[in-house]
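How a chain folds remains the central question behind the approach discussed here. No coordinates are needed to read the tokens, only the vocabulary itself. For completeness, the protein is quoted in full, as a sequence line and a line of structure tokens:
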Amino acid sequence: FTGELSIKRSQAEQLVRERGGTTKSSVVRGLSYLVTNDTGSGSAKNKKAAQLGIPVIDEAAFHRLLEG
């Protein structure tokens, strides 16, 4: 996760863990998604995700993944 979300980061991480997932504090190879409030941002995390081919999704897409 990066940037401000509508929920606390700890809450978002808990939602992932409840569904059997894991979270990382940095962008590393093998990461499934980077969740951000601005997918077009030029932030270091967004750039690294792009270099590694990691999809960058917004919070709405994150919530849709949780529902599906």
Notes: The mean pLDDT is 95. DSSP finds three helices and two strands in the chain. The radius of gyration is 11 Å.
